[in-house]
């Protein structure tokens, strides 16, 4: 909540008597549930014009308005989206709409309301101590409890069960409320309880959530009692699992107030902003300078993968892919800088290929992709991304002079460990190259690291368009005759015929 709406936390009451005399009035604490609290603080933030969910990029016009409507309606809601769409991040951001401090009876496992305790221990304590009942305070972070749904989750984990050890130590009868061990849900009382991957809960566990979602209470196993909990429940799930028959219990789905769908970044610019925000780029040892075209290529790899037929779209391509890829790109450039005692870390295109492990592990491939191999698919994605970004910088640039240099027998190999100074000397031999780099905002005053990075980008783009050749062994060379014929014909190299790709025993059979 905004600071002005919360009573001063400098002298917080420590007893129930002091609490009654403070700004935390009876009406404020007893009759204001957590959903009302979220609603009031959200309204205050809307009126003040403050950002609703700082750090959440790309959802301002789509997801955020739906979340706002759900909170204003006091709904429990679920976020549906593929992996890496910031679902958990959004749920955790809800704590920013909670009060800075909230009083509860000190020592209570379910953070009981001092004015209206619901557990027997606290009721007895207030009856016995009265105004001297000790009070403690909760922060927003302590009022958020998250559980990852797995098939082995039990009702006792979520709701609670009898604790015979507690009964024996306290000398209580097993029928006493004092022998109860509370699960995660009661312990989230007066806060937010989030369940990630809701459909992974067993059916009987989903049924156990009916009461809390509809009537607002839970019944603990073996006890004829009801705990009227004050909880805002939020969930996340994969759309395919949530809508598939047998994965989600229909009555539970019916009890969830709002169903909100998330999505991947809609534009490359949004993706770049998210990746820049989440990736570890400032290493603190040597200054890191990531050229804009490197960031664009990294993001285009993710965008291309989401559209590629060889990648499983149902699984999705997480936003963690460009984040991890950029970190590995910087790390490879950092390794080169340390080896060559360079003053600045400037990534090159070669570092993208070194980041292959950060991409292959995040892609689920279809049958055709598996037949080609993850490395081949990823290399094609990188190549396509380079070609696309190259067109944004050099689409109308005349590169015939550079092409002629290679056709006359010129070649150059730039290893990813080669120092910028050595690489710059090699590149000086290519006629007309330096003059073309102004499109990448490279001037005569730029460092060798930036010049080499831009030059390699230009050459890689030309190779992606088959204007020059490229191989791991020989580096950049003249294109071979087959590439020239393909380029002149305006068509791609033929795809392999998978029906004739090899013996039948090496192919999968689907029955």
In short:
By secondary structure, the protein is an alpha/beta fold. The chain has 25 helices and 11 strands.
Mean pLDDT: 86
Shape, please? elongated
Structural class: alpha/beta
Distance between the termini: 58 Å
Gyration radius over CA = 30 Å
* Number of structurally distinct domains: 2
Low-confidence stretches: 1-5, 485-511
How many distinct helices? 25
Order of strands side by side in the largest beta sheet? 4-7-8-1-9
Number of strands: 11
Q: What percentage of the residues does DSSP assign to strands (E)? A: 5-15%
Helix content: 40-55%
Q: Main beta sheet: strand number and arrangement?
A: 5 strands, parallel
Question: What order do the helices and strands come in, and which of them pair?
Answer:
Layout: H1 16-21, H2 26-30, H3 34-48, H4 63-72, E1 77-80, H5 87-93, E2 102-105, H6 120-129, E3 135-138, E4 144-148, H7 155-158, E5 160-162, H8 164-170, E6 180-182, H9 184-187, E7 191-196, H10 203-207, H11 210-214, E8 231-237, H12 239-243, H13 250-255, E9 258-261, H14 268-278, H15 292-307, H16 320-339, H17 349-354, H18 357-360, H19 367-372, H20 374-394, H21 400-407, H22 420-427, H23 433-436, H24 448-464, E10 469-471, E11 475-477, H25 481-489
Parallel strand pairs: 1-8, 1-9, 4-7, 7-8
Antiparallel strand pairs: 2-3, 5-6, 10-11
Helix pairs in contact: 14-15, 14-16, 15-16, 15-20, 20-24, 22-24
What does this structure look like?
With 511 residues, this protein is an alpha/beta fold. It folds into 2 domains: 32-100 and 139-261, 3-Layer(aba) Sandwich (Rossmann fold); 268-494, no CATH class. Helices cover 43% and strands 9% of the residues. It contains 25 helices and 11 strands. The chain has helices spanning 16-21, 26-30, 34-48, 63-72, 87-93, 120-129, 155-158, 164-170, 184-187, 203-207, 210-214, 239-243, 250-255, 268-278, 292-307, 320-339, 349-354, 357-360, 367-372, 374-394, 400-407, 420-427, 433-436, 448-464, 481-489, and strands spanning 77-80, 102-105, 135-138, 144-148, 160-162, 180-182, 191-196, 231-237, 258-261, 469-471, 475-477. It has a 5-stranded parallel beta sheet with strand order 4-7-8-1-9. Strands 2-3 form a two-stranded antiparallel ribbon. Helix 15 runs antiparallel to helix 16 (320-339) and helix 20 (374-394) packs across helix 24. Residues 1-5 and 485-511 have low confidence and may be disordered.
